[in-house]
Amino acid sequence: MSVLTLPRPALAADPALRPVISFHGVGKTYPNGTVALRDVDLAIYQKDFVFLVGASGAGKSTLVRLLIREEVASSGRIFVDGSEITRMPRRRLPKLRRKFGIVFQDFKLLPRSTVAQNVAFALQVTRPGQRHLKEKVEEALWIVGLEDKLHKWPDELSGGEQQRVAIARALVHRPRIFLADEPTGNLDPDTSWGIVQLLLQINHRGTTVLMATHNREVVDLVRRRVIAIENGRVVRDEMEGQYLKEGEATI
Amino acid sequence: MRRVIASLHFAAVSALQNFRRNLGVSLAAVFTMGLILLMVGGTALGRHTINQVLETEQSRASNMRIYLDDGASLASIADFQSRLQHDSRIQSATFMNKDQAAKEAAQQESTFAESLRVLGSNPLPASLNVTLRKMSDLQAIHDLATSTPIVQQGDLATDYNPAVISKLNNFIFAISVIAAVVVVVLFFISLVIIMNTIRTAVYVRRREIEIMKLVGATDWFVRWPFLLEGMLGGVMAAIVAGVLVAVGYNAMVGALHAKLLFFPLAVDGAYLSVILLATGGAGILLGALGSYLGVRRFLAV
């Protein structure tokens, strides 16, 4: 069992050594007084695959929302790809968000668009006039194994397939960082495993992956970096972690 | 350039698509905007017509006849006329002798000539016909006339009738106030209704907006389809309202003309086209503004 104390994330001159994502003493208190995150420090490097674990309400989703600036941190600083984002002006947010590919528990597909249209949508709204749109869409769907379902409607697909469409949509613009907020939350164990395999593949191609989850089997099987959050604090950060701390009682 | 065209194309296609897909809500917005444009356009034209009528009446009202004693000498009349002409409140003062007065009466009333023959003499007084710059000076000029010796005594001094004039003044004032209030109230009601209608249309598409924002679309990219959709609805509403306003205006002028034969009232084509253009512009503006406000809440991510 190796418990790593990560070096304080410094802004190293060599971009390869610079974290893709770093949090420096980040806190988040919602207007109603709920404290979602307290004094969070962490650094995630290029090609990392990170599980963000913790019970519902521990602060996982808040952390994801801070990264894409859906929420603004109450204190501390957050760097994404070298830019400080907590004080980033609104007009620069589209550019920030294009660095991410994001999938959610509820897929967020457009029900009245086909699989191919759903994937193409991401490129059409961020890069209007994109050349070779069709090829890019087909490539993304090929990566997730749905190249034969281009013209299906979302409600004709299984939950796992819908999540794959969402992953293809998140990949099609070749993001630097892939964020998955409970991507297997609505899926059965076998399907979940397929989705995680896909995320590992994406990571293997060089994309940083951050997956918030409370799917214990998956985390324990994969044995990648685990950051555990409890009551808004990072309580564990292990390079080959498990869902629960060794010796921690199972529920 | 390629990007601009692609963005416009995307916005136009999704605007049309959404208009069609949410036809019910879209038509509700068109109906609301059309109704409001109809009311505002109708109010404007109605007010214009009433103003036309009132202007005629007002120009009549600021005329006054000062009736002269039959015995007044021409020299004293000319003297009084010149005094009136040099008065800054008076635009013109023309002399009308007894014969002219009789001729005019004969023209207005065909039986007068007969009465005159029966009477054997002309009972109508000579007069100084005065046109005032402002109606509000009528009383003062009436008082001036009463105190002049060559003018007939008492009620016969002039044709000034304070009751009619003040009624007319009050009427003009009331019409202006009512029209202004109606327009202001309609404007606010319309903005609230349109904003809410369009917000419903936007609400149906909140998921699409959410995804657009998440993948990194700019605010304006998200807005454009809604603005186009709103403007499209606005134009449709303006066309419907414009046709109804034009038809209604013609019918109203026709009906008024039949009732008020003595008014020189006609369809004011120039004013109507101004109103129609303004309706079109207002429709586009209302649609765009309503969409802008309606979409704002959903953009704040």
Quick recap of the structure?
The complex is a heterodimer of chains A (251) and B (301). In chain A, 29% of the residues lie in helices and 24% in strands. By secondary structure, chain A is an alpha/beta fold.
Structure characterization notes:
The complex is a heterodimer of chains A (251) and B (301). In chain A, helix 4 crosses helix 5 (159-171). Chain A has helices at 60-67, 93-97, 115-126, 133-143, 159-171, 189-204, 216-222; strands spanning 21-29, 35-44, 49-53, 75-80, 83-84, 100-104, 177-181, 208-213, 225-230, 233-238. Helices cover 29% and strands 24% of the residues of chain A. In chain A, the strands form two sheets. Chain A has a six-stranded mixed beta sheet, sandwiched between helices. In chain A, strands 2-1-4-5 form a four-stranded antiparallel beta sheet, with helices on one face. Chain A is of the alpha/beta class and 251 residues long. Chain B is mainly α. Chain B contains ten helices and three strands; from the N terminus they run H-H-E-H-E-H-H-E-H-H-H-H-H. In chain B, strands 1-3-2 form a three-stranded antiparallel beta sheet. In chain B, helix 2 packs antiparallel against helix 7 and helix 2 packs across helix 9. Chain B starts with a helix and ends with a helix. The chains are: A alpha/beta (251), B mainly alpha (301). Chain A binds chain B through residues 68, 70, 90-91, 93-98, 100, 102, 108, 110, 112, 121-122, 124-130, 169-170, 173, and chain B through 2-7, 10, 21, 207-208, 210-219, 221-222, 301.
